[in-house]
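Hey, sorry to bother you again with one of my protein questions. I've been puzzling over a protein and I'd love to understand its fold better. Take your time with it, there's no hurry, and the full record follows here:
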Amino acid sequence: MSRKPAPKELLAKNLGDGESSNVSFQRTAEGIRACHYNSRRLLNETQQLIDAGLFASARFLFTSAKEELAKAYILVDICRLDVKMHKDAFGKLCGAFYSHISKHAYLAILNYTYLDEFDDVKRAWEAEVNEWWPSEPESEVPDLPHDTCFGREMPLYCDFVDQDQRWSVPENTDTFFFGPVHNSPPLDNPTAKLKELLLVWDETLILNARLPEVLKELHAVFRGHYINEKKSWTNLEKLYGRVSIELEQLGIMDQAHFEVSPLVKWPLYHLVRQG
C-alpha cells in the first residue's frame, strides 16, 4: 500500500530540497509573506471576536495567529542552513513548521532579551517545549500542561479534567487571558504585542520587493557557520554585520534597517527535536 507523503516531506521538496537556488529563495520569501499576511488576518479576526465578547474562540484564533508568524521565523532559519551538510536539521525544521509546540517555542524564544550565550537559549527552549509541569510536593499549584493546551485545546474543546474531576467546557465569558480588553496598556495586551511584531516585519522585510535577495545574502554568510553551543551572540553579531554590509553595498537594505529586522535573531535549528 502506498504511503501518503507527510506534509514536512512535501515542504522540503517544494523548498528546493537543499538546493540553494534563486527559485528556493523566491519561494521561501513568498512563504514568509504568506505567513505574515495570514497572521495579521487571524489577529484582525481575533479582535472581532474579542469585541463580540467571544473570548474562548478569540484565544484559539489568537494562538493560531502567533503560530502563523512563527512559521516565518522557521523559514528564515532554513535560509541560514547549509542544507546539503545538515539535512537532518533541515528535515526537523520542515517538521517544526507543522508542530504547535515548536512554533510556540520559536515565537517565545525569539522575543526573549538578554540571551547572550547559546546555553541561555537552550535552557529557554527546553522550558518552552516542556509538555508537562508536575507540581511540587505540598504545593498548591496543580500539574500544568504545555501552553498550547491553554491556547488551542481548552478554548475550543470539551474534555474531562482528571485533576479537578470535572468536565472542562470553553466559556466565552472568561476574559482572564486578554485582561481588561479595552483598557490594557500595550505591554500587557497580547494582541498589541503581536501587532507590534507584525509591524516590525512590515517595516523591514515584507514591503521590501527584494526579500529573496536578502535571504540569499543571509544564506551566503551563515551557511558556513552552524550555530550551536560553541557560538555566542558576539559571534552572531559579526556574521550579521557581514550580511548588513553586503546588503547595503547591493542597495537592498541599509544597515540600520537590517539591524532591527526580525532576521537578526538566534538561529534555533540546532534545538529543534520534533521533525
User: Anything to note?
Assistant: The two ends are 24 Å apart (CA to CA).
